[in-house]
Specification:
By secondary structure, the protein is mainly alpha-helical. The protein contains five helices and no strands. Helix 1 packs parallel to helix 5, helix 2 packs parallel to helix 4 and helix 3 runs antiparallel to helix 4. The longest helix has 30 residues. It starts with a helix and ends with a helix.
Length: 137
């Protein structure tokens, strides 16, 4: 079960790497909105997969990894909600200033990466998502 969960997570990592830089931005779309929506979607998928692995393997995790995963489990939802709220505020604003939204997204990704066990597949995935966001926004 544990090996299957890690393979599933590794497959997600590959998909995220391929997809995050390839968001379809149609004429009239705001690129920062499209990239932020990608961050919201891909980060949730990565978190969900990491939580599946954690649930399947928590009994065999080291105390440090277990603690990091539990912090990620409890703190990610509020951070994720905050970046979704920042996107809604940007979309509702009459004057579009992408700087504040960019700051919110990068802050979210930095916070989430800091919660992840260092060097973990989740941390690597978040790094890829952040690189795609900054390279494409």
């Amino acid at each position: 079960m544990r090996a299957f969960a890690w393979r599933r997570f590794a497959a997600l990592l590959c998909v995220v790497a391929l997809v995050t830089g390839c968001a379809l931005i149609r004429p009239g779309d705001d690129p920062i909105v499209v990239r932020t929506q990608d961050v919201i979607s891909n980060s949730f998928d990565a978190w969900d997969s990491a939580m599946d692995v954690h649930a399947a393997a928590s009994a065999s995790e080291s105390p440090a990894v277990y603690k990091a995963m539990e912090q990620l489990r409890t703190k990610f939802p509020a951070s994720h909600r905050a970046v979704r709220d920042a996107l809604k505020a940007y979309q509702a604003a009459k004057t579009k200033d992408p700087g504040a939204l960019r700051l919110a997204v990068n802050g979210f990704l930095a916070d989430v990466a800091a919660l992840a066990p260092p060097g973990s597949k989740f941390a690597q995935t978040i790094g890829l998502i952040r690189a795609a966001f900054n390279g494409g926004a």
